[in-house]
Amino acid sequence: MGLAHHISRLIRAGRQLAEIQTGMPESLPSIQEVLDEASQAASQPGIPWPRERWIESFPEHRQVFDSLPDRVSREDVRSACAASPTSPAGAVEAFLAAMAWGHGESGYGVYRTRQILDSAGADAGPRLAAARSAAEDRGALAGYEQLGGASRMHGLGPAFGTKFLFFQNREALILDDLLARWFRGVTGVNLRPTVWNTNLYETYLTAMHDWAADANVEPASIEQAAFQLVSDGRGNQWAR
């Protein structure tokens, strides 16, 4: 059975579930609830982050952290990434901005990011730059395939790797554990967000783009809406 046929079946199943569903396990929102949220086009609130801890660990990149507000939002990170040079050093700056937002107030974000960059050493900038270039020039799947393949970095999985890619290309939707749980709840498909798998990521993107086209919204708005509604239900640091 081809991938295209599998994706088509997945999307049909998702629509059927949306029609009959009144509540999701673990208080997960239905597809219709997510689409309703996405149609409001609301910005995700900014989140506090430990600026001084990031500066202490990465003093040579202080200008990146100084450019971000006390409550950093998606728009702030995208602006920081757009302002960073198209070079290996600039790719590291973009990566740090994305990680600061992605980890938010968590106590281990700085440490994990330091480990990722240290493990790659001098190759960190070129690897991130190659993934950034692939996402910008050849699209979301190319960026994902590059970052999970030739540019793979120890300790950087899809959950935070797609956060970096998203700020280089809005079509490269974030896929972390929270979103994978929601997607599995409404489609029954396990996207295995801890493992780099281009076929599964393509399945995710295809479904999200299909739902977005039906609802006349951007795919990124659906990802953000699902993330926000699940966060609200869980009461995590991203909850409104």
Could you describe the 3D structure shown?
This protein has about 240 residues and is an all-alpha fold. It folds into 2 domains: about 5-40 and about 175-235, no CATH class; about 45-165, no CATH class. About 65% of the residues lie in helices and about 0% in strands. It has 13 helices and 2 strands; from the N terminus they run ααβααβααααααααα. The chain has helices spanning about 5-20, 30-40, 50-55, 60-65, 75-85, 90-105, 110-120, 125-140, 140-145, 160-165, 175-185, 200-215, 220-235; strands at about 45-50, 70. A two-stranded antiparallel ribbon has the order 1-2. Helix 8 (about 125-140) packs antiparallel against helix 9 and helix 12 (about 200-215) crosses helix 13. The radius of gyration is 18 Å and the shape is globular. The relative contact order is 0.15.
